[in-house]
Each structure stands twice: as C-alpha cells, then as structure tokens.
Design brief:
Strand content: 15-25%
Structural class: alpha+beta
Low-confidence stretches: none
Strand order of the largest sheet: 1-2-3-5-4
Distance between the termini: 34 Å
Shape: globular
Number of helices: 3
Number of strands: 5
Order of helices and strands: HEEEHHEE
Mean pLDDT: 96
C-alpha cells in the first residue's frame, strides 16, 4: 500500500534501521544519508520516511513531505558548505531517468563543477 514500508525496499530498510547508512540529518518526515557511490564530494540522498515509488507519486499524495525534502536539501547544502558555491537537487523518476531504487528520493550534489546538460 502506498505510504507503507515495503519489506523489499532498501530505503525502507534504511529508515527502519535494518540497513546501515551514514546518516547526516533526520527529521520527522525525512532521512538524509551519504550515497555509497558518490558522484561529487557532496552526494547525499534525502528520502521520505513514507514509501512512494517515485517523486511524482510522492508529490501527488504527500505534497508537504515533498516540500520537506527540498527544505532538507538546503540544510544538507549548508551542512556541507556548498550552499554558496552551488549545488544540484535531482529527482530521478522512472528507469529511463536512471532511477534504480523505487522509493522516492532526491540527490543533493555539490563540491565540484556540475555541467549542463547532465549526462
């Protein structure tokens, strides 16, 4: 059921404490942790505590939690001191966009030049 933890979801397991992660911030609605395969000096994933397959379904069902993720992205950028040099927030939605874990999440990337358009 949408919003409920999924037993086969890696990110639900991180939220539940079953899988370790390098947590950088937690709120009532979100968890932020370092990516295990970073693509930039700052590469943090921000996930909602509730399970939705992608950003589009999260936004439709829980717009306030979607906003919470964006607020946390700013906090992460400040924590990693990339808030003044620039950072990118990325939501991959669907396999064609590169989504590999089907639990909505945002990537916060910074600490190096980020080309446009992305790859």
């Amino acid at each position: 059921m949408a919003g409920e933890p999924q037993s086969d979801c890696l990110f639900c397991k991180i939220v539940g404490g079953e899988v370790p992660a390098t947590i950088v911030r937690e709120t009532e609605t979100t968890v932020a942790f370092r990516d295990i395969n970073p693509q930039a000096p700052t590469h943090v994933l921000i996930i909602p505590r509730v399970h939705y397959a992608d950003a589009a379904s999260l936004a439709a069902a829980e717009p306030q939690i979607t906003a919470d993720i964006l607020c946390e992205a700013r906090e992460v950028a400040e924590l990693d001191k990339v808030d003044h040099t620039g950072y990118r927030i990325v939501f991959n939605t669907g396999t064609g966009a590169g989504q590999t874990v089907f639990h909505a999440h945002a990537h916060v990337l910074g600490g190096r030049g980020l080309n446009w358009p992305p790859g």
